[in-house]
Amino acid sequence: SVKPTILILGAGYGGMVTASKIAKQFGSNDANVTLISKHNYHYQTTWLHEPAAGTMDPDRTRMPISSVINTNKIKFVQDEVNEIKKEENKVVLKESGEMEYDYLVTALGAVPETFGVGGVFEHAFSKWTVNGVREIKEHIEYLFAKYNNEPEPRDDYLTFVVAGAGFTGMEFIGELSKRIPELCQSYDVPKSKVKMYVIEAAPTALPGFDPELVEYAMNLLEHRGVEFKINQPISEVNAEGVVLKDGEEIKSQTVVWATGVRGHPVIEQAGFENMRGRVKVERDLRAPGEDNIFIIGDCSLIINEETERPYPPTAQIAMQQAETVADNLLALLKGSELKEFKPDIKGTVASLGGKEAIGVVGNKKLYGTSANFMKKMIDNRYLWILGGAGLMLKRGKSPL
Ligand code: FAD
Ligand code: NAD
To answer: What is the ipTM of this complex?
Structure first.
């Protein structure tokens, strides 16, 4: 009999863990499995605030897909997914045209959400990808280099605006605030000239997170020179900087956008019912009404039954979903019963630059070096799941 074809779209947390688990669990006669992704490398989105600020080499966040996935078992195709034709069981790729599938796993991740604020894509940095963050890093260094060579001082060269005090915005400013003294030193710039703003629409930074830890983070960052503007939505980004809802303007040549995410545009294009590009998947992680399409990671939406609100999209959930999807694909092939996905949220830990971090793990609050230790362990644990001890030792972070 002909082997069924499984396509996995996207080699991020969801796609990589699905592929690696299939490689381990499927027999060679079970299915033809192909992983399709834009680049021939996998990158760790959760590390990107570091290379964005220049505190880590961007190359450290990525690894060749063939170095972690057994490409004898899982075929890899480097291409961009432009379309899913779910009625025809086909995906349309940019270079290689159409590919047919019997089963599809969609794990294409997220794109920036602007909430309709104008000028973001033209004037702000909003791409949390390897190529996106490299541009932020180079841009910041270039402005430092340029500063002393202008006939008139340009304060907007040394004014950095972060839009959104969610985890991405806070982790990025944590890294940047840690790096500024070093940049000032290398580029002959007085530290007093540098301004860093974090602008948040909600009445607090990190809305929904433990208030004590939010205060800890804000105090720490303020000590490093960060100024918070809370409860002040950005209403426009333009060539000069940002305009706030109350009319205030902040002149800045570097606006880093981190106001949240929506699911990949291919989801909407394909005609799945969605909320901001995310599909509220069934308990077995299939799209409603589709018996052969799984959607995981930032393209999926799952309701937390305790709070009756969607879980925030995280790598933690994407990886756990991937494990369930690999099991459920095998169940479909064998005609056995599918599993229900139950997220097991271990906690949330965010780095703040240097050896600082905050987090809640179980019901324990962590901050400072213990939170930093935990954060590094979480980063290392992922490498362990993906490629075992070898990958963790080669690519992991020192927890001390
Ligand atoms: P991704 O991991 O983003 O992978 C998507 C993949 O699809 C990528 O490889 C991409 O190249 C590929 N792709 C995209 N478009 C196409 C296309 N058209 N065709 C082919 N391939 C395509 N979560 C946590 O749990 N803990 C954290 O500490 C944490 N820190 C974060 C820090 C930062 C700075 C950011 C930005 C996010 C962080 N997150 C964290 C969130 C986490 O990164 C995401 O929830 C997670 O990456 C989602 O996994 P995914 O598999 O859905 O998508
Ligand atoms: P987010 O949605 O968590 O935070 C975005 C913030 O931007 C919100 O506080 C929101 O009020 C604010 N905002 C929205 N519009 C605004 C405007 N016009 N002006 C000013 N502020 C505005 O998004 P994120 O930080 O990009 O994170 C995306 C996902 O990734 C989340 O699910 C998050 O939990 C996850 N993540 C986790 C970690 C971690 O665990 N360490 C780190 C980064 C991201």
So the answer is: 0.99
